[in-house]
Amino acid sequence: VGRGGNAWLGPPGCAMFTVCLQVPLDSPLGQKSPFVQHLAALAVAKAVRCTEGYEMVNIRVKWPNDIYYGSHSKMGGVLVSSTVNRDSITCYVGCGINVSNSQPTLCINDIVKVAPSKLGTSQVTSLLTPEKVIARTLNEMEFLVATFQSGCSNMVLQEYYKYWLHGGQEVTLQDYGCKALIRGLDEYGYLLAECSGKLYKLQPDGNSFDLMNNLIVTKA
Hints:
Layout: E1 14-24, H1 28-31, H2 35-49, E2 59-62, E3 66-69, E4 73-84, E5 88-98, H3 108-114, H4 116-119, H5 130-149, H6 153-161, E6 170-173, E7 178-185, E8 191-195, E9 198-202, E10 207-210, E11 215-218
Parallel strand pairs: 6-11
Antiparallel strand pairs: 1-5, 2-3, 3-4, 4-5, 6-7, 7-8, 8-9, 10-11
Helix pairs in contact: 2-5, 5-6
């Protein structure tokens, strides 16, 4: 089950997995735990686009936890459930992305099979499998978490911006009744939106991003 009780479908060909992260509370990531879902989404995007033949597949990260092809086709998503213990946070990170299942929306392999010339890549000789995507995602996630924990959060954030959809995007903040420009993420992983010189910090768990209408609303 996804955010808001939405159901995830898992047809054959869809890469789906859950991994458990134990994060010390006094570590950089423990102090900025909203970044866990951002790191996971980035890991999925990089797992695809760092694969030979898939470099130009326009896989993007939609704030806070969706994986898109371009700006209109949802390909997958991330869901993090966390429990705070005495000195650590236990994070269960669930990820899913359409790899070779043409239904219910669109999958990665269909994109590279029908349009290699449009993507600027050669014909792919070895298509991705769900197993390969899961393995590559876990490798990327391990590297990103280690980099963040080493104090290099800015390096990770700059990598994140290469894949996300929202740089300079104008949105309507429904609760505030104003139009704002997205400026990025703050040091805790909250979305920064600027309206008339004022910065609004929007937490991932409390807001929903309607990409089609450029609208950010508080979740009921």
